[in-house]
Amino acid sequence: MQLEIEVKFWPAADWATIATRAAEAAASVEPALGNPRLETSILFTDDESVHDLNRDWREKDKPTNVLSFPMLERDELLALQAAGPPVLLGDIALAHGTCAREADEKVIALEAHATHLIVHGLLHLAGLDHEISPHHAREMEALEVKALAKLGLPDPYGDA
After folding, report:
1. Domains of the chain: which residue ranges?
2. Could you tell me the fold of the domain covering 2-150?
3. Are 127 and 29 spatial neighbours (Cβ–Cβ below 8 Å)?
4. What pTM does this model have?
């Protein structure tokens, strides 16, 4: 997967490497994300921008930690051949203020929390959705935990 990274309003860090490692871990637990034709953009931005996106695209008038905007249906992603031109998987946006506050509350590094949210966002782009049912939530969380463990990061849910 090719990543296009844009960083605004986030502290200095190697966000491109963090995002690449998160994408590799996500692909290791969700093979549909391993197609080399896929391209994804990840925007590290502020709460105001994510609030605007959340309001305009999801009709939720509040900031959130991460948003995913898939460009492919899951069946299209699964049917995608490995050979061919690049295909846009979708976009992810992370809100610095919300992410930083959550990381502080969890007493973890911002980089670790952002890694989790990138994995989470990529799984959404792959067509997984924790909001469908408790069963779907458990399946998605289990994949997140597996991906993060591959990076040496602890279970963010504390119960898997």
Report:
1. 2-150
2. Collagenase (Catalytic Domain) (3.40.390)
3. no
4. 0.95
